[in-house]
Amino acid sequence: MRSYQETLDYLYSQLPMFQRTGAAAYKNTLGNTLVLDKIYDHPHRSFKTIHIAGTNGKGSVSHMFASVLQEAGYKVGLYTSPHLIDFRERIRVNGDVIGEQAVIDFVDTFDTHNKKACLEPSFFEITVAMAFWYFRLMEVDVAVIEVGLGGRLDSTNIITPELSLITNISLDHTALLGNTIPQIAAEKAGIIKPNVPVVISESNDEYNEVFVEKAKRENAPIYFADQEYTAAYSTMLPAGMQNFNFHKSGKLYYEGLKTDLLGSYQRYNIGGVLKATELLAKMGWRITLESIYNGLRRIKENTGLRGRWEVVGANPLVVCDTGHNEAGIKQLVEQIRQTAWKELYMVIGMVSDKDIDHVLALLPTEAHYVFTQASIPRALDAHELAAKAGRVGLKGLVIPDVKQAVVKSLEMAQPNDLVFIGGSTFIVADYFS
């Protein structure tokens, strides 16, 4: 029998992994997933599900949802990707990661079944199958399932959820999902199921009609959360909390709604969750005002989420965030502008298979940059990144090792400065590791 480390080595080395290798690991069919689902006797049918898609914010929304449902008294499975430090972060039940032995057991059973099936699944296909298998084993009441990539052909898209939620759409993974906003929206809209309500967190004239038409074809009730709930960003509170007031139909509806996920952009994600929980409550779910307030206040505590405008140091202020595409970087730059600092230091790295020129053009030109690269094959060479950045007026040092890059930034920064670490999920992962 394999050890846990040997099992991980098998998952990482033998199965194509998109996060590490890119498009070569992407499967444009649900074929393997459907076979795996049949092999394990359709485990996802034994629990209810909530399905979350979108370009930015779907991870935060998934964790918000899981936290609120836990506070409401449900036993909650949570499937997200990618992980930051430990593979097991992808699969949780009431915040607890899947056990090492369960990972070993699943892979061993897959090997046994596959002697007959002869599948060549991707890393993501196996991981989704493992999550559904584990959630049935743990007898969860409901599982919050985050789409990995796209929606229509994502391995998670074999479920028929109680409710679907789509956060927003922007240009990302254009080689696989399409190079226009409507094309990408059409892929995300693939999670809209017959007669299943869908909430869109952020409406936009570029893609609203795509979702409306898909919902109409599926007879799925559709709701645009930001057309009902609007947030006044109130105050940043001590102890890593922020406070929002949400209005509905012009009236104060949620006063003093606190959350431990920082970043003013979380107002869009929270609005989607508020609308979605309102719908579930009307469907008979036991979601109370108290569970919403407590769930949003205890997201990190209940789910273990990290890497969303996470403050990891003080004097100087050190913040990391996994935002990496054009829309995500716009939100981060807005947050940086709202934060007090004297000098700004940016430890930045990106992946090589994205059009990063538009992203670099959004970054603050007055910052002191340290260009770096994550320890994965997809990482863009730090020197190449620095050259590209220089063409849009961003100047700085090149230190390929992430931790050394952070150390150098901290040596240069003074107590009233801000050090930001990001540009890619994998830069944040290397910092935490």
Helix count from the secondary structure assignment: 17
Largest sheet: 8 strands, mixed
Quickly count the domains.
2
Strand order of the largest sheet: 4-3-2-5-1-6-7-8
Just give the CATH class of the largest domain: Alpha Beta
Second rung of CATH, namely the architecture of the largest domain = 3-Layer(aba) Sandwich
Mean pLDDT: 91
In percent, how helical is the residue content? Answer: 25-40%
The number of distinct β-strands equals 17
Radius of gyration: 21 Å
Structural class by helix and strand composition: alpha/beta
Terminal CA distance: 27 Å
Q: Report the uncertain regions.
A: 18-26
Strand content: 15-25%
The CATH superfamily name of the largest domain is Mur-like, catalytic domain
Any idea of the CATH topology of the largest domain?
Answer: UDP-N-acetylmuramoyl-L-alanine:D-glutamate ligase
Any idea what the shape is? Answer: globular
Please tell me about this protein's structure.
By secondary structure, the chain is an alpha/beta fold. The chain has two domains: 300 residues, UDP-N-acetylmuramoyl-L-alanine:D-glutamate ligase (3-Layer(aba) Sandwich), CATH 3.40.1190.10; 123 residues, Alpha-Beta Complex (Protein-Tyrosine Phosphatase, Chain A). The chain is 39% helix and 19% strand. It contains 17 helices and 17 strands. The strands form three sheets. Strands 4-3-2-5-1-6-7-8 form an eight-stranded mixed beta sheet, sandwiched between helices. Strands 12-13-17-14-15-16 form a six-stranded mixed beta sheet. A three-stranded antiparallel beta sheet has the order 9-10-11. A hairpin with a 2-residue loop joins strand 3 and strand 4. Helix 3 runs parallel beside helix 6, helix 4 packs across helix 10 and helix 4 crosses helix 11. It is globular. About 2% of the residues have low confidence.
